[in-house]
Design brief:
By secondary structure, this protein is an alpha+beta fold. The chain has one domain: hpI Integrase, Chain A, CATH 1.10.443.10. The protein has five helices and three strands. The chain has a three-stranded antiparallel sheet, with no helix packed on it. The longest helix has 15 residues. It is elongated.
């Protein structure tokens, strides 16, 4: 056996993986999704979850981790602090419909954002004593879309949200 002077594999090209672009929901799909959410305590909770996921581009873990002190109202604009993937911290604008939905679920639990302790979790304001869990968020974002009488949307919520100037640099 002789020693090779060159690697014969150097002439090979690696296959390039083609990644499909993420597809967000369009405005009509979001309207149809929200239209099937019932006006019940659990439905209002699901609506708040969906609005934060869709409009603010929050991840499931960010929605679950929201605390009263994370939400700040500055004039007409509402912001929320978050701890994202890789434990990155940032601040993002919370669109008014998402904020109003959060206030509605707090009202269902006889709470107000201004009177809650900053460390108090928003996830306890729900239709269940256990509060919002990872499974609740998954159910809210998935089960409604999978109902037999509805077309599955197959959208990526974080890619639907507009990226605003309110995000901190490197926040995602």
């Amino acid at each position: 056996m002789g020693i090779l002077k060159a690697n014969p594999c150097d002439a090979l090209e690696r296959p390039r993986a083609v990644t499909a672009p993420a597809r967000g929901c369009n405005a009509d799909e979001v309207r149809r999704l929200l239209a099937v959410v019932p006006d019940t305590v659990a439905g209002r909770r699901d609506r708040a979850i969906l609005l934060v996921l869709i409009l603010a581009g929050g991840r499931r873990s960010e929605v679950i981790a929201l605390r009263a002190g994370d939400i700040n109202v500055e004039g007409e604009t509402v912001f929320h602090a978050y701890r994202g993937k890789g434990n990155k911290r940032g601040r993002r604008e919370l669109p008014r419909p998402a904020y109003e939905a959060i206030c509605a679920i707090l009202a269902d639990a006889a709470k107000e954002l201004g009177t809650m302790a900053p460390t108090e979790s928003l996830r306890q304001a729900s239709a269940r004593p256990a509060g919002v869990t990872s499974g609740t968020v998954t159910a809210a974002s998935g089960a409604i879309c999978k109902r037999p009488d509805r077309r599955r949307l197959g959208c990526t919520f974080s890619d639907t949200a507009p990226r605003s100037h309110a995000e901190t640099p490197g926040s995602r």
